[in-house]
Amino acid sequence: MDISGARTLVVGATGVLGSAIATALQSEGAKLALAGRSGDFGDLAGTDTPTFTFDALDLERCANLVGEAADALGGLDLLVVAVGVAGFGEESENDVITEQLFTINTMAPMAFARAALPRLEGEGTIAVISAILADVPTPGMATYSASKAGLSAWLTAVRGEQRKKGVTVFDIRPPHIDTGLADRPVAGKALEMKAAATVDDLVPLVLQGITENKRSLSFDLKTAEFALR
């Protein structure tokens, strides 16, 4: 798709990764609406930029936000979802934390995407940040891994459903990147993890994938290389 002029909602735009993607899209001429948990969008939020706040545990709000943003933009061409929380160790292996991880990491992105699909029919893209854990489930991060794998599986199925309708579904599965996410787990203590890539490595590939209507962006731990497909 052509990013220039694309009416774009970036969800998670107050986070490190979401804000970096939004900045890059803005530099390519996208017409942005921004959504975040804190509402602090910094320099991204110009006087004519629609902004919204949400709690990812409130799925109804997630869905309604998409319609509000599309109305403010005069339509919707691109949805980018960059939301998530981490959980580690035995502390994350209980029903309460499991529900929280799946609601934020799996169900909230699904709610945003489902609400966007009718507005994107004919041409449009949904780009969602999942994680390498969808491909490489990791001990000590069992529930977190499962929540990301569930999201990735859903995106794969929806891609097949939407192909004939002209909607591209782009599943982005980066390795561990130092965004501060691991320092704010909902449970447990972060494992010792070395960042395999940087935000600056990832963002240009996300934009390339959107522009070229790619299906997925993955990372090979053995070769330390990204792959767009």
Summarize the structure.
With 229 residues, the chain is an alpha/beta fold. It has one domain: NAD(P)-binding Rossmann-like Domain (Rossmann fold).
Can you characterise this structure?
This protein is an alpha/beta fold and 229 residues long. The protein contains five helices and eight strands, in the order βαββαβαβαβαββ. The chain has an eight-stranded mixed sheet, sandwiched between helices. α2 packs parallel to α3 and α3 packs parallel to α4. The longest helix is centred in the middle third of the chain and has 26 residues. It is globular.
Order of helices and strands: EHEEHEHEHEHEE
The shape is: globular
Structural class by SSE content: alpha/beta
Overall tally of structural domains? 1
Named at the architecture level, the CATH assignment is 3-Layer(aba) Sandwich
- Classified in CATH, the superfamily is NAD(P)-binding Rossmann-like Domain
How many β-strands, per DSSP?
8
Strand content: 15-25%
Low-confidence stretches: none
| Gyration radius over CA | 16 Å
| Averaged pLDDT | 96
In the CATH hierarchy, the third-tier topology is known as: Rossmann fold
GO molecular function: oxidoreductase activity
Pfam families: adh_short
Keywords: Oxidoreductase
InterPro entries: NAD(P)-bd_dom_sf (IPR036291), Sc_DH/Rdtase_CS (IPR020904), SDR_fam (IPR002347)
